[in-house]
Design goal:
- The chain has one domain: Sandwich (Jelly Rolls), CATH 2.60.120.
- A hairpin with a 7-residue loop joins strand 12 and strand 13 (171-173).
- The protein contains two helices and 16 strands.
- The strands form two sheets. Strands 1, 3, 4, 6, 11, 12, 13, 15 and 16 form a nine-stranded antiparallel sheet that branches. The protein has a seven-stranded antiparallel sheet with strand order 2-5-14-7-8-9-10.
- It has helices at 108-111, 125-131, and strands at residues 7-9, 17-20, 22-29, 32-39, 47-50, 58-68, 80-86, 93-98, 115-120, 137-138, 148-155, 158-163, 171-173, 184-189, 193-197, 200-202.
- 5% of the residues lie in helices and 44% in strands.
- The mean pLDDT is 95.
- By secondary structure, the protein is mainly β.
Length: 203
């Protein structure tokens, strides 16, 4: 992928999305046109794949917002993020996501769990936390429901997550669990979440 290559997914139509265990709706959130996603049932792969996307190495940029749904259990965090290198039928993918209600929690341990890397289906958050505490999650400042710029930079088996325009990544992964592969890009949400997404730029 060369530095001059760029593609934009404006998310102006639901036809741009291939839905897996999510309901999608075009809405306005904090003054911006957006796609709103909520999960159907209790899946571990609730994603909306960007139709026609194809990604191996490069940069993915967008703004996202997440809050717990009003009917969500108390331990839900408004989980929202991006999946990449998504395999057919969403069977496998890599993912960075945020826990927005953790960012300003009055509990340092919760703050330390503000960002997360997972690899579906073999490396969910709880396995990674148990086997490698603190390695695949980190702190970053977050506000529930607020538009949050994120940037995912991927090269080979390494990936960095940048949040809120920071010059340095808040989470560094040096061993992507699917190895060096390619696939599609998707909008990702977790349990009990009401999530919002705007234009995705890939370069």
């Amino acid at each position: 992928m060369t530095s001059s290559w760029l593609r934009s997914f404006p998310l102006s139509s639901l036809s741009e999305l291939e839905l897996h265990h999510v309901e999608a709706k075009l809405v306005t959130h904090h003054g911006r046109r957006a796609v709103r996603l909520v999960e159907q049932g209790e899946p571990t792969d609730a994603i909306a794949i960007l139709s026609g996307s194809d990604f191996e190495d490069g940069v993915i940029e967008t703004e996202i917002a997440g809050i717990p749904r009003k009917d969500a259990p108390q331990d839900m965090r408004g989980f929202v993020g991006l999946a990449f290198r998504v395999q057919p039928d969403a069977s496998r993918f890599e993912c960075f996501y945020l826990r927005p209600t953790n960012g300003r929690a009055d509990d340092q341990l919760r703050r330390n769990h503000s960002t997360q890397y997972i690899s579906h289906p073999d490396f969910p958050w709880y396995r990674l936390r148990e086997e490698s505490p603190g390695v695949y999650e980190s702190y970053t400042d977050l506000v529930p429901g607020a538009w949050t710029p994120i940037r995912v930079v991927v090269s080979g088996i390494r990936a960095h997550l940048y949040v809120n325009g920071a010059e340095q990544p808040c989470l560094v992964v040096n061993d992507l669990k699917l190895g060096k592969t390619r696939g599609q890009i998707a909008l990702w949400i977790g349990a009990g979440t009401e999530a919002y997404f705007t234009t995705v730029i890939v370069k």
